[in-house]
């Protein structure tokens, strides 16, 4: 049995931790400061919720540039599009406006068991690519695999490792804030808003 490289879970996890740390080291302080303060910044900004949402996405995309060379993610790999994808009602409305699809009107957050949609595609996955890439939600922009191979991102291996992730607390707070409705921010899976793929 080959217990080196891609087959050795401990080695792969150590490499992934190292790549995650390298990403965090590569982030310029100015970007980290903006991430820390974006919730406060959008709270006082005189702009529409949709415009604030675009600003949140832009900041995440600027940070994601520094992941290059440190992640397994590449065009044509859609492993993370076969998992739960939590989006806010504001994000669902933005996707609906961009695509012409109708988003279900959901007024209370819906939570799902962590693995409910493992192995089941997002309704916007088409030919292994995101059909709404420019408008994809924050959850998709944040998500990245620091492993050297996509092997650990899909079944049957995905549940055998604890993938090292990065939490973007400032962006999460900002998204919750701009998504706020009368009774609080509403979050649900992207499939709750748009249904299962046809
Ligand atoms: S919105 Fe796009 S990137 Fe996100 S899970 Fe769906 S297909 Fe994948």
Oligomeric nature of the chains: single chain
Order of helices and strands: HHHEHEEHHEH
> Span from first to last CA?
41 Å
Q: Strand order, main sheet: write it out.
A: 1-4
- Unique bound compounds: iron/sulfur cluster
Per DSSP, the total helix count is: 7
Helix-residue proportion: 40-55%
The tally of structural domains comes to 1
Could you say which overall geometry the principal axes of the C-alpha atoms support? globular
The strand count comes to: 4
**By helix and strand content, what is the structural category?**
mainly alpha
- C-alpha-based Rg, rounded: 17 Å
Strand count, sense and closure of the main sheet?
2 strands, antiparallel
Mean pLDDT: 94
Low-confidence stretches: none
Share of β-strand residues: 5-15%
Present the secondary structure layout.
Layout: H1 9-26, H2 29-44, H3 49-64, E1 86-88, H4 89-99, E2 125-126, E3 129-130, H5 138-142, H6 169-178, E4 187-189, H7 190-194
Antiparallel strand pairs: 1-4, 2-3
Helix pairs in contact: 2-3, 2-6, 3-6
The protein binds iron/sulfur cluster.
Description:
The structure is a single chain. The chain is mainly alpha-helical and 198 residues long. The protein has one domain (9-194). The protein has 7 helices and 4 strands; from the N terminus they run αααβαββααβα. The chain has helices at 9-26, 29-44, 49-64, 89-99, 138-142, 169-178, 190-194; strands spanning 86-88, 125-126, 129-130, 187-189. A two-stranded antiparallel ribbon has the order 1-4. Strands 2-3 form a two-stranded antiparallel ribbon. Strand 2 (125-126) and strand 3 (129-130) form a beta hairpin. It is globular. The N and C termini lie far apart (41 Å). The mean pLDDT is 94. The structure holds iron/sulfur cluster. Residues 81, 85, 122, 124-125, 130, 132, 136, 140 line the site of iron/sulfur cluster.
